[in-house]
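TA notes, week 10

Several of you asked for a full example with nothing omitted. So below is the full record: structure tokens for the whole chain, then the designed sequence directly under it. When grading your own attempts, check the secondary structure regions first.
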């Protein structure tokens, strides 16, 4: 089956792209695509508006007051006011009347703060200085001079001291503290506005995407806007969103649709998962297609086993799979596919037994095989209409017919799912004709249906098929055109289906050839061995080992190529599978060095 995907969209300046990609890479689940577009006046404005909304949402969500300009301004004023109060407490409130009297007399008061070590006591004799406050580290004092005498020559930097009283400064601090609390309360209450802000951001982002997609304006600034689209399995949503929020990455997420053409991740059981490599060789399904792997897996295993046709070769494959898994042995890069090799070996062992061959030996002729097991083997002839045919050949053709009928049903269901029943009427017509006709024929031949019931069933299948294939194949079109189109489809389908079914005879032919060739090497070795062997054992062993090694290699090649052809050509063609999807390849820090 195909894993459901979630689409994530990021908009950012290209100068930020590398840093963002490194953070995304750490998550290891996002399959990223991106495009770069030049910034012009319109796109820059849209980007600024989207960014402003994004920052506002982040500030509200995280209560990050440092990102709020008003909060920061009030906080700065409060810090300055508290510092002014603290400083004023050291100086105390001077008598306003005395300060005024000094000023009226033409005197100025200068305030100084120095470390105790830098304060020179001799200044008390040299200058009109009055010490106001002193502690272990700091001394505060004032110097009084006459304004008419100009600047004094006391080379120490003055300290600013607020003229307001301590009471006035305290009131100012309390006012700013209340303003800060009001602003924080306002921002907390704005959390209910987040959904609306997110919708607005999404609209802005989508507008910018549309503009960038349709605009080829000249670059108007030394930067670009990067639109990054990522896809991740929906099962990862909770973990991924939590990680993105921690990294302060803002994004728009929505369920992926077929129109988005998301990458495809296959999710199958332990058995079918071994065959996903074969699906990938042809091409991944698109997002709204059926995953062909669950059907491909059992049939490819069956086809492979038929083509190998020897239970002994199944044992070799099982041993090879275990060897690939347990050791560093990596024949033809198959180490990572050891499960597939082992599975093919088990299938070959079972089917090879039913075909009655073990390292070229005809098991049906071996005396120690129980009679009950011999009856299960598909060895011998089956008479049909006075002519005898190999049972194995009949089985191969029957498998092919079933395989193609299944493909036709899947195609009809797929078209119905994606485009609706009206667009699938013609396909359902062919399914009714071929599958329905075969079912009726089978029931009639087995005498489940009597002559009257068979006649009624044939008429029903024929009428439904004709209506679907010739009359309603394109609803709303001229019936004459539909009839002409139906006739052409009939010619193509009839000739195509016949050739497709006959292709499955290769299963019988390859299995037969492999069994006969293995038996031939056994016979040659036995002829050399003679009735009283001595040194003849050596050439016997060489011929048998070399012969079966060569036959095994040739059988493996044929068992891979021909079942693959039956799957990729006969089955995929009749099932409507195109394999044009994208493989899911998340951006990750992990590098798989296995088997390199």
């Amino acid at each position: 089956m195909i894993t459901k995907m979630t689409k994530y969209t990021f908009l950012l300046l290209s100068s930020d792209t590398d840093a963002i990609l490194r953070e995304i890479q750490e998550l290891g689940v996002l399959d990223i695509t991106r495009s770069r577009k030049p910034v012009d006046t319109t796109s820059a404005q849209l980007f600024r508006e989207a960014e402003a909304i994004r920052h506002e949402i982040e500030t509200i969500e995280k209560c990050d007051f440092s990102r709020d300009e008003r909060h920061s301004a009030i906080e700065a004023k409060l810090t300055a006011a508290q510092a002014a109060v603290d400083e004023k407490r050291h100086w105390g409130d001077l008598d306003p009347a005395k300060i005024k009297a000094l000023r009226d007399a033409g005197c100025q008061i200068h305030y100084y703060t120095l470390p105790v070590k830098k304060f020179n006591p001799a200044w008390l004799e040299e200058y009109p200085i009055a010490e106001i406050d002193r502690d272990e580290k700091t001394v505060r004092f004032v110097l009084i001079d006459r304004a008419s005498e100009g600047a004094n020559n006391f080379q120490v930097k003055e300290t600013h001291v607020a003229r307001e009283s301590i009471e006035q400064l305290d009131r100012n601090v309390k006012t700013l503290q209340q303003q800060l609390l009001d602003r924080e309360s306002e921002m907390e209450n704005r959390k209910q506005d987040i959904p609306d802000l997110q919708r607005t951001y999404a609209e802005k982002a989508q507008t910018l995407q549309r503009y960038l997609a349709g605009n080829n304006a000249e670059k108007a600034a030394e930067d670009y806007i990067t639109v990054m689209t990522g896809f991740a399995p929906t099962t990862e949503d909770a973990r991924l969103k939590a990680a993105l929020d921690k990294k302060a990455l803002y994004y728009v997420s929505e369920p992926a649709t077929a129109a988005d053409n998301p990458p495809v991740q296959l999710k199958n059981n332990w058995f079918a998962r071994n065959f996903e490599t074969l699906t990938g060789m042809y091409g991944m399904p698109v997002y709204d297609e059926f995953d062909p792997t669950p059907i491909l897996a059992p049939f490819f295993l069956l086809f492979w086993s038929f083509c190998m046709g020897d239970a002994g070769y199944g044992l070799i494959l099982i041993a090879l799979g275990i060897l690939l898994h347990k050791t560093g042995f990596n024949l033809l890069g198959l180490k990572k596919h050891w499960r597939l090799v082992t599975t093919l070996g088990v299938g070959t062992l079972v089917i090879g037994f039913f075909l009655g061959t073990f390292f070229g030996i005809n098991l049906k002729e071996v005396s120690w095989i129980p009679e009950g097991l011999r009856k299960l083997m598909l060895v011998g002839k089956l008479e049909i209409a006075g002519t005898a045919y190999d049972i194995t050949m009949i089985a191969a053709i029957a498998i092919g017919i079933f395989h193609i009928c299944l493909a036709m049903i899947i195609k009809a269901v797929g078209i119905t799912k994606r485009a609706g029943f009206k667009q699938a009427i013609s396909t359902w017509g062919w399914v009714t004709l071929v599958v329905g006709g075969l079912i009726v024929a089978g029931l009639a031949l087995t005498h489940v249906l009597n002559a009257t019931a068979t006649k009624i069933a044939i008429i029903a299948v024929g009428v439904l098929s004709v209506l679907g294939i010739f009359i309603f194949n394109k609803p709303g079109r001229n019936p004459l055109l539909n009839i002409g189109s139906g006739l052409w489809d009939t010619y193509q389908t009839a000739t195509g289906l016949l050739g497709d079914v006959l292709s499955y005879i290769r299963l019988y032919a390859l299995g037969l050839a492999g069994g006969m060739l293995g038996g031939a090497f056994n016979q040659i070795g036995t002829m050399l061995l003679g009735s009283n062997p001595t040194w003849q054992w050596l050439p016997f062993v060489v011929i048998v080992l070399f012969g079966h090694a060569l036959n095994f290699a040739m059988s493996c090649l044929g068992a891979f190529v021909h079942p693959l052809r039956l799957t990729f050509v006969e089955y995929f063609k009749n099932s409507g599978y195109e394999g044009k999807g994208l493989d899911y390849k998340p951006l990750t820090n992990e590098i798989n060095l296995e088997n390199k």
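The two ends are 30 Å apart (CA to CA). Use that as a sanity check on your answer.
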